[in-house]
Amino acid sequence: MRIEQRRWSEAGGWERISGDLGAFPPQVVLAFGGRFALARDGVLREIQAEYRGAQILGCSTAGEICGTEVTDETVVATAIHFESSRVQAVHRKLSDASESATVGEQLAGDLEHADLVHVFVLAEGVAVNGSELVAGLRRGLPLNVAVTGGLAGDGDRFEHTLVCADGELSSGSVSALGLYGDRLRIGYGSLGGWDQFGPDRLVTRASRNVLYELDGESALALYKKYLGPYADGLPATGLLFPLSLRINDQDQRVVRTILAVDEQAGSLTFAGDIPTGSFVQLMRANMDRLIDGAHDAANACYERVGTETPDLAVLISCVGRKLVLKQRVEEEVESVRDVLGPVTTLTGFYSYGEIAPFSSSAKCELHNQTMTITTISER
Length: 379
Known about the structure:
about 20% helix; 27 strands; six-stranded mixed β-sheet; eight-stranded antiparallel β-sheet; globular; alpha+beta
């Protein structure tokens, strides 16, 4: 693999950050940027002109990762040349969250399955049911093919997000990149670092990703009680207090983040499903544990690929972590660098949801409030 990384900013335009492809043509460019920066007239066209013929896969963000720097309203373009592997990019329109599972299954069917090693997906971040999207992808893909990726972001605004599909930016789209080749080595890890507090609450009424009642009480009223003065800032302040979800005693917990509130219905809308009969527990931030979670996610990437240093690491961390860590946000990226070493190119973004298996042997899930890492190498 050969990798070249550039970054665009309003003040300085395009600058090369690392690497040089030279005469080697890239097959794919990962482009992550703030919503307004990515949509700025000419920026996407300049990427296409610089890397002619490459598939461009990207999305809007709640912060961009380039090396160990975290920036806002920039665009980070990471161009990748594979020596012996190939890629296939597919795209689907998602007009409503209720279509999430269907679109996931359609995308899985659009990809060629022969020699498919891994799927990387970027999706609409607001009008989506992330867990249904992942379930559809799982149903349509071979059992041995894992999926990683994330939901697009829009800062802390939660207004609308953009995904790069067929060379154009679009709201309400999902893009998937299939990776093919027996020399590819893919690693992944996804960990949080939040502290649970308060009792487990039974979900007594919910519909897909909309939560109405906990222990027979209004979910919104109960949530506001726990948040206290933070309740006035919902839904944005809900990022600071996610829910830990378990389906039964055997299930590993996943984290769910609020996307919207409905005062009239007394409901909370989450990025993924909250099944009736499941249990949830409130969570709050522990800064040191959040940073340790990023470190452990990087270590988990080596479970599948051994000890060889990866060429590329795509870091997708939740906007809630960024809001909590504030000026310490780069520490979680630096902790990943400490594990992977100075040679690995780091790119990525802050998201509205992360997609990855729990472990090297588990099924893919939607996560919130985690640091999710995908490492890619050719050997």
